[in-house]
Amino acid sequence: MSVWQATISWLTTAAHWSGPEGITTRxxxxxxxxxLSLALACAVALPLSLWLGHIGRGGFLAIAVTNxxxxxxxxxxxxxxxxxxxxxxxxxxxxxxxxxxxxxxxxNAYTALRDVDPDVVExxxxxxxxxxxxxxxxxxxxxxxxxxxxxxxxxxxxxxxxTIAALVAGPGLGRIISQGFGTHNNGETVAGALLxxxxxxxxxxxxxxxxxxxxxxQENRNKPSGILVADPS
Length: 233
Fold this sequence. Notes:
The protein is mainly α. The protein is built from 10 helices and no strands. The termini are far apart.
């Protein structure tokens, strides 16, 4: 039996989809931890990045955080957290993923605010808008597509990286891959990898769709008063 035949056979076996070790349970675990990690990363990074972008300062901080986040291996963080007081638990996994998800959210949100047309911002201030009003009614709506792009990048990275958590007894679809390696079952290993890829593609597609719907029309981008109008389409 070839690897692909073994993979199809494993995926089409009903017993592999149910129970505490089944695919359905693993997908739910994967999505739950990914969503929690992404939400916490956004809760930390978005307020800071939007504030720094609005006041036009802190670019060095955003770049430094991004560089550090890219340089530190996620598996190293998982190992460190698992061997400390947190132990081999979901808390260790979530904390590592949050630190991994902060850089793309922080950098993209900061860049999005700084890329807003200064003339539009000045026009908004010229009609009497306060700083918070400019941020909420002008800058953020125009920057939203790029902000969502940062969240999308973080989401896909978190979904993919969570697979590594299985190496330190973490939950999710990575357990299917690790179990396949452990039992020398190539079909199970490939099936687990394909499930992770499929989940990442779905997450990518959903965020790409949201980003497309949030993108302002050309008329809104060029309107000097900073007042957004509805897209007739």
